[in-house]
Write a sequence for this structure.
């Protein structure tokens, strides 16, 4: 497995392939993270669905999920859509407002994605391991979202 720092050039390369549409590039980033980081069992990008107060799944890697649309305020993703802050859940069973995507998920991290200062989406990662995410994961995912944001601003 690669370190998060070692993944940055590969993420940079995937996200900057302007010959591919953004959802294709985001799916490739999801695939890369899901296959190269042991504890990233499901990786997805949700985006605000137009003017609706809901998120829609645009790209992911891992098991298919029924949660392709998430209302603001519901689950960890819906809370991040409202709080505009990173949310790390070490143990999903301790969260009242948790939407289970899979019985195997033990922890989750969600990092908002900002374009021109507006929270327009997020990266969501589920792990089958409790306490899977550290400050390094948050910093890395914030960096990933900053790269995605640059592509969306143009």
């Amino acid at each position: 497995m690669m370190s998060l720092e070692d993944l940055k050039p590969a993420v940079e390369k995937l996200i900057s392939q302007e010959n591919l549409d953004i959802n294709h590039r985001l799916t490739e980033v999801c695939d890369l993270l899901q296959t190269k980081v042991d504890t990233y069992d499901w990786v997805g990008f949700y985006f605000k669905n137009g003017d609706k107060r809901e998120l829609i799944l645009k790209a992911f890697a891992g098991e298919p999920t029924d949660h392709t649309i998430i209302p603001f305020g519901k689950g960890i993703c819906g809370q991040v859509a409202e709080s505009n802050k990173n949310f790390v859940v070490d143990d999903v069973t301790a969260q009242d407002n948790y939407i289970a995507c899979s019985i195997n998920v033990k922890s989750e991290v969600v990092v908002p994605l900002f374009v021109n200062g507006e929270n327009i989406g997020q990266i969501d990662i589920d792990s089958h391991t409790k306490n899977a995410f550290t400050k390094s994961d948050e910093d890395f995912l914030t960096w990933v979202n900053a790269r995605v944001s640059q592509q969306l601003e143009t």
About this structure: Residues 45 and 123 are 5 Å apart (CA to CA).
